[in-house]
Amino acid sequence: xxxxxxxxxxxxxxxxxxxxxxxxxxxxxxxxxxxxxxxxxxxxxxxxxxxxxxxxxxxxxxxxxxxxxxxxxxxxxxxxxxxxxxxxxxxxxxxxxxxxxxxxxxxxxxxxxxxxxxxxxxxxxxxxxxxxxxxxxxxxxxxxxxxxxxxxxxxxxxxxxxxxxxxxxxxxxxxxxxxxxxxxxxxxxxxxxxxxxxxxxxxxxxxxxxxxxxxxxxxxxxxxxxxxxxxxxxxxxxxxxxxxxxxxxxxxxxxxxxxxxxxxxxxxxxxxxxxxxxxxxxxxxxxxxxxxxxxxxxxxxxxxxxxxxxxxxxxxxxxxxxxxxxxxxxxxx
Length: 333
Ligand code: P6P
Prior knowledge:
- The protein has eight helices and 15 strands.
- By secondary structure, the chain is of the alpha+beta class.
- The model has no long low-confidence stretch (mean pLDDT 93).
- The protein has helices at 7-16, 24-44, 67-82, 146-149, 218-228, 246-256, 275-288, 320-331, and strands at 54-58, 64-66, 86-91, 98-99, 108-116, 127-135, 158-164, 168-173, 178-184, 189-194, 205-207, 239-240, 259-262, 292-294, 315-318.
- The chain folds into two domains: 7-194, 2-Layer Sandwich (Fructose-1,6-Bisphosphatase, Chain A, domain 1); 205-332, 3-Layer(aba) Sandwich (D-Maltodextrin-Binding Protein, domain 2).
- Bound molecules: 6-O-phosphono-alpha-D-fructofuranose (P6P).
- The site of 6-O-phosphono-alpha-D-fructofuranose (P6P) has 9 residues, from helix 6.
């Protein structure tokens, strides 16, 4: 693996392909890389330090913050602030957006889910960090505004995730495809291990919390019944795989093919997942890898005009033809 290109070399090589690039995005990715390495260390020794379990706080979502949620949030903010190219941050763990005063002349804002699925850490299940990057809309030199963050996903400059699993990987896109880098902790470096990742057009895996099935819209349950039917020619029944960690479920489906569903339910009529820092970045990656991401039939995630920073959305993402099949079931009502 050490003969593979490193993340830094890959970014510089790609930047050379864009003469207009100022190197700011390169610096921004350097921030993500630093935070990922620190969190890799914290997560992989979580049982040994006093970082497991709940912190004292509750986030704006009303969810109990895990200690590592707070640590991850702080590490990403510190790393992004230090490199000088990010002027503002919005995070699942922060009630409102943050202006990085020392970087007011910078051009990028970053939205973060610093540690998605963090409740899984106590039981040693893989988790992830999700990030989404936009050019600011407000003039450089001024404080960032809500409009800098309330942009549709199609305006993203870059998006990606770090998955802390059996190995730690950084998977990202800048709109020219999706590439995956595996972290070698013995060298402290990320190496290109998954060049030009493509999601299979059809997938035989579905990922959903079936415990809530009685709360799902009828079209979702008709699709799930279809997945469970015996039909050898179409590879059914599909396999049910649900880790309860969006990044892990998506990463598996990105490689093997499949669909992840978080439908609206009676208790979460808008769905559970957050549009800006969970669904938009994952949707950008999915589309860049040939997949599809919708909130309902014909409702492309990346075209949703956000109204609130922490707004939620129903979320269906995965292999293009599998998502399109689900859309047909949903359209039947
Ligand atoms: P449920 C984790 O809290 C998360 O945001 C996603 O990572 C995960 O896919 C989903 O929620 C799990 O939600 O309701 O099935 O426990």
